[in-house]
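Reagents: none. Just compute today. Thioredoxin.
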Amino acid sequence: MQRRNMSMSGVVDLSAVKAAGEAKEKAEQARARSAEQGGAGGPVSLVIDVDEASFEAEVLQRSAEVPVVIDFWAEWCEPCKQLSPVLERVTREYAGRVLLAKIDADQNQMLMQQFGVQGIPAVFAVVAGQALPLFQGAAPEAQIRQTLDQLVQVSEERFGITGLQGVADEGAEQEPQAPAEPENPALAAAQEALDTGDLNGAVQAYQNVLSDDPGNTEARVGLAMAELLGRVQGLDAQQVRKEAADAPSDVEAQLRAADLDMAGGHVEDAFGRLVETVKRTAGDDRETARVRLLELFEVIGAEDPRVVTARSALARVLF
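Predicted 3D structure written out:
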């Protein structure tokens, strides 16, 4: 979906010489303690569940030794169900250069407020106690890897934090070996295309799945996401927003702006813009705006509270 790419220039205090110096010192101390205890080469949990009670120990303290990536998720969030497994797999492949802390957004509202989370999935990092916004929404795997590479580089160059080198993941070892479920080749091909940024291929592959299984929720969400990403590719965000502001009755301008809102993680803004467009239009224009709104509902998932609220607002303007 909609992504805010990680911007190193926007990270609070990351460039501060004093903060970097203190972080390097803490990292050296953490590595020294690890060496005294026999090194960090044994099994550790690279993917952990964190709540408000364990946040300081599991995230803040660990961030002096290894970058901690935070995944805000919820059970009802369909994009979360697509993003989280990719984050977990990639984290394990990084073999201790990063840790992944999973935070249930519904159960940890205080942390949501502290990080300023407005929509999920939302991904942050903590390095030496400093918070970095990474991206929001279900990003393709290629972008996730690029972002983590930047995070590892910044952590090492500015803070001297090199992570837990060469560790094994005890969580992966403890997972029971469940019988392999038959994989839908078309769905696997669609997900791979989406992860690698082949949006046209992803759209076609998801459509292939839905032609055989119209009720496949994963395929519906994936198709809506791929189509959204395809629509916003190459758009000049500043120009799109100017056109939408200058011509509130221009339906196409409002559709483009709503897509950008959604792609940037501003879900309520996207829904609100289209509800207002439906309200002020009639005939084919109204139907076009209504259909686009329903398509964006698919990206988030029917159970998302923001979708429920927007559906009610849509019903009020229609009837």
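Residues 8-174 form a domain with the Glutaredoxin fold (CATH 3.40.30.10).
Action item: order primers for follow-up constructs.
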